[in-house]
Amino acid sequence: MDVNKKIDELLIANKELTFQSGEKEKRAAELVIANKEVVFQNEEKEKRAAELIVANKELAFQNEEKEKRAAELLIANEELEKAKIHIAELNIGLEQKIVERTAQLEAVNKELESFSYSVSHDLRAPLRAINGFTQVLIEDYLDKLDDEGKAVMDEIIVNSKKMGQLIDNLLEFSHIGKLNVSLVDVAIGELLDAVIADLKPQEPDRKIKITLNELQNVKGDQNMLKQVFINLISNAFKYTGKKKEAVIEIGSYRENNWCTYYVKDNGAGFDMKYYDKLFGVFQRLHSTNEFEGTGVGLAIIHRISVSTVEKYGLKARSMRAPVFIFHCRHNQYVHQSI
Amino acid sequence: MFPTDVDILLVEDNKSDAMLTIRALKKNNLANNLVHLIDGAQALDFIFGKGEYEGRNIGNKPKVIFLDLKMPKVSGLEVLQVIKNDERTKLIPVVMMTSSKEEKDIVESHQLGVNSYVVKPVENETLSKIVAELGFYWLQVNNTPK
């Protein structure tokens, strides 16, 4: 009985043992897996650590670069500051120079003004005396002069008159540069009508045909534009003086922002060889015997041109048919430079 | 001692201009009572009875003063200014006679109260005519307060 009991107990114990060893094996297997996991995780950690080291190195490198850059920037900034100071100094110098130059220019201008004033006053006075006393001789002592003496008196009178004309023209020329330019819309057609109405009666005995073609209006200085046309048209009158009929054509055309005005005539023309001389003061391409004049008209146009009209010139198809032209900016009529 | 009736007081430093002006006036019988002075300082002495004209009765006013603009010492403009700023003399007609066509001079003269501004031309024929017309106008046509 007892034996049987014991056997039963042993059997049970055996089963228990078997079960327990099964459990142990399971646990062992589980442990093996867990171990493997740990090994894997360790490996991963080592990899991460290696990566972190690399990243750290990179960071350190970048930091160094940044510091280098910062140092470079500092230097660049310092240089910029220095350059700024230098520029400021230069500016001050420039301003001083401009002030000095302006003062110089003003002084020269004043001198010129007083010069032209002196010309106006002091040159005329002796001339008036020469002319006046010659006139006195003619009036009071004519009977004591022979024909040659009388002819000499006449020459003195003519020349003193001419000298007076030269002085007047020279003054006119010097005044042009002093004029203030005021820009308005100029109706060129009306302006030309007025100019022609003024000029034509001065040639009552001549046959003069003036054709006005299309005329563009322009923004400009009324007086200066008028002066340019007066000079060009009276030149046209003058140099057609030997023609039976003077034919003068005035017109304009527009190209982009430019208006070009032209004055042509069928007059004497001139040799293009001397084109350069045409616009100089007191330069003439005809003798006084051929055509009267002092050589200031076109010089005045030149003076006006550099101050307001921008461009001027002459297109000559041949020396027989000169066409004087000048251009004006159509809208923004700016620019004053001498 | 001093002339009592002065028609024209000519103030002109340029001898030639003065001769030609006086000649033109004489030809037209306008220079009978003319006094010619040669600069602005002398003109002021005469007009205000000072200096070499000390004692002159300044009530004897010229009918007109022909005044050159540019003169040594005291200029025509200065003389004009003094005359026109003095109650005793401001009514004397003053004609500025000059070679200067300068706008500046013309404006300034008128601002100072000039009665006429005449530019002397180079041509004597014209000058004589202008001078004669001026003499005729200021002595015979124009009326000034007594």
> Major sheet of chain A, described briefly?
5 strands, mixed
Strand content of chain A: 5-15%
Q: Bin the helical content of chain B.
A: 25-40%
Q: Give the biggest beta sheet of chain B.
A: 5 strands, parallel
Q: What multimeric state do the chains show? A: heterodimer
Number of strands of chain B: 5
Question: Unreliable runs of chain A, pLDDT <50, ≥5 residues?
Answer: 307-321, 331-338
Q: H/E element string of chain B?
A: EHEHEHEHEH
Distance between the termini of chain B: 23 Å
Question: Largest interface, per-chain counts?
Answer: A-B, 22 and 21 residues
Number of strands of chain A: 7
Order of helices and strands of chain A: HHEHEEHEEHEE
Structural class, from helix and strand content of chain A? Answer: alpha+beta
Q: Mind telling me the C-alpha Rg of chain A?
A: 52 Å
Structural class of chain B: alpha/beta
Mean pLDDT of chain A: 80
| SS field, number of helical segments of chain B | 5
For the CA atoms, what is the radius of gyration of chain B?
14 Å
Can you walk me through this structure?
By secondary structure, chain A is of the alpha+beta class. Helix content of chain A is about 65%, strand content about 15%. In chain A, strand 4 and strand 5 form a beta hairpin. Residues about 305-320 and about 330-338 of chain A have low confidence and may be disordered. Chain B is built from 5 helices and 5 strands, in the order E-H-E-H-E-H-E-H-E-H. Chain B has helices spanning about 15-25, 40-50, 75-85, 105-110, 125-140, and strands at about 10, 35, 65-70, 95-100, 115-120. In chain B, helix 2 packs parallel to helix 3. The longest helix of chain B is centred in the C-terminal third of the chain and has 18 residues, at about 125-140. Chains A and B meet through helix 1 and helix 2 of A and helix 1 and helix 5 of B.
